[in-house]
Amino acid sequence: MLTLASHPLAAGALRAATETPTTDAGTTQLILAAVLGIATIIVLIVWLKLHPFLSLMIGSAVLAIVAGIDFVSAFVSFSAGLGSTVAGVGVLIALGAIIGKMLIDSGGADQIVDTILARTPLQRLPWAMALIAFVVGIPLFFEVGVVLLIPVVMMVARRSKVSPILVGIPALAGLSALHGLVPPHPGPLLAIDALGANLGLTLGLGLLVAVPTVIVAGPLLAKPLAVWVKLPPPTTVLGVSERDEDAPRPSFAVAVTVVLLPVILMLARTVVEMTGTLESPVGKGLEFIGTPLVALLITSLVSLVAFGSAMGRTRDEISTLVDKSFAPIAGILLIVGAGGGFKQTLVDTGVGDVIASGISDANLSPLLAGWLVAALIRVATGSATVATITAAGIMAPLAADLSPTHAALLVLAIGAGSVFLSHVNDAGFWLIKEYFGMTVGQTFKTWSVMECVLSVVALIVILLLGLVV
């Protein structure tokens, strides 16, 4: 019987699509390939305004061809990397989107915000906003967190008659730190996947790094920024959707428990692994439920009950909410997948090994090198995700020789670099500008400065941890 795979032409195409391409290129050619590939991505995103998915795809092809891969096999590594990345990271992002959607739509996020603000005196408002962003931001993508919290910031500023900078910067610092440092956000997940780091360990260290980083870049920095850029208390609050006050919503305890559940499950697995109790019945159980995919799946199902059926929603309504949670992440998944393809092209061509060797010969700390690469690409492209993907691909060969703790710290260093200096080529820059009603100059003096401080403080904390762990 003649099958598709047995046909000579089909068999040849199948081999071409699955065999890892090889190249005999020298060091100079590989470095040139890396420079041209990354430059292509930057030019396409910054000047031609091409979507990052297409830019990463074209940049991968340029990298492969200049590195000596034949034209037919130019996209083999890209396709393999895209598939493995979406399989490993894409599902986690989708599950996180479900949790975030259920949290917002049920009023759970509102409950967390209202409960914390109700117990906060005026002088503690900046700290309260940082805490709210830190808690609510764990399952939410940055843009979703901004849309959710900035109207709250404006309401707090109006009622308290204070500058929106004073209460807004702490909230933005909390959201940005979690976005760059803490899984299950896309950037840290991508870096963990590319570097082979332990997710639970990275999560624990990420939270440890995020706390002092948010304190410095949030409440402490907000005071001088509010003096430097004087914004009057807002008289109107844009973007606030009226919610039925009589509609049921989960309690504060339930909302916080669901938000923290995946964190607790993944950290529990890490503790079991580090204490060497995996072989016990309890250890095996915690190892299973602490697996990232299982932990987020469990949390997603719990959110459907706690934020869905327990709030009186029908099964059809819950199904509709889950369906709606996927639409906003379609673009993110494509970018994430394309980034994985670019990373795999870097690895298969040997470019990553050459750059890693150069960093080793220069006696530069891998943590500092990872931060620098991510920061440079972030400034050039304006995309934290692209910066994380590219830097992780470049640093992947070095990670193989690092201890599990330092591999996790390298993930965090890359994440810290990926949020450095948001400016006019970053969509987040314009989002903040419009919500706060600031000029471009004022946005540079507040949001951009905060991002720089946050990135540098995070790096300092990471380097200090690298000396003691």
Automatic annotation (TrEMBL):
UniProt KW Cell membrane keyword: yes
Keyword terms, alphabetized: Cell membrane, Membrane, Transmembrane, Transmembrane helix, Transport
Superkingdom per UniProt: Bacteria
Keyword Membrane among record annotations: yes
InterPro entries xrefs: Glcn_transporter (IPR003474)
Subcellular location: Cell membrane
GO molecular function: gluconate transmembrane transporter activity
TM ranges: 30-48, 54-78, 85-104, 124-150, 162-182, 202-222, 251-268, 288-309, 321-342, 368-395, 407-424, 444-468
Stored Pfam families: GntP_permease
Membrane topology: Multi-pass membrane protein
GO CC entries: plasma membrane
Family indicated by similarity: Belongs to the GntP permease family.
PANTHER family: GNT FAMILY GLUCONATE TRANSPORTER, HIGH-AFFINITY GLUCONATE TRANSPORTER
Official protein name in the record: Gnt-II system L-idonate transporter
Lineage of producing organism: Bacteria, Bacillati, Actinomycetota, Actinomycetes, Micrococcales
